[in-house]
Amino acid sequence: MTTNLNVAVFGAYGHTGRFVVAELLERGYAPVLIGRDPAKLSALSSVLPGLESRQASADDPTSLDRALAGAAAVINCAGPFAATTAPVVEAALRAGIPYVDVAAEIEANVDTFEHFAEGAREAGTVVVPAMAFFGGLGDLLVTAAAGDWTAADEVHVAYGLSSWHPTAGTLAAGTVSDGRRGGRGVRFAQGRLQYHDDARPTLEWPFPEPLGPQQVIGEFTMADVVTVPSHLAVPEVTTYMTAVAAADLAAPDATAPAAVDDRGRSAQTFVVDVVVRAGGAERRLTASGQDIYAISAPLAVEAVDRVLTGRARATGVVSAGAAFDAVDFLRALAPHLTVRQPLDAA
Ligand SMILES: NC(=O)c1ccc[n+]([C@@H]2O[C@H](COP(=O)([O-])OP(=O)(O)OC[C@H]3O[C@@H](n4cnc5c(N)ncnc54)[C@H](OP(=O)(O)O)[C@@H]3O)[C@@H](O)[C@H]2O)c1
Question: Are 218 and 238 a contacting pair, CB within 8 Å?
Answer without folding.
Answer: yes
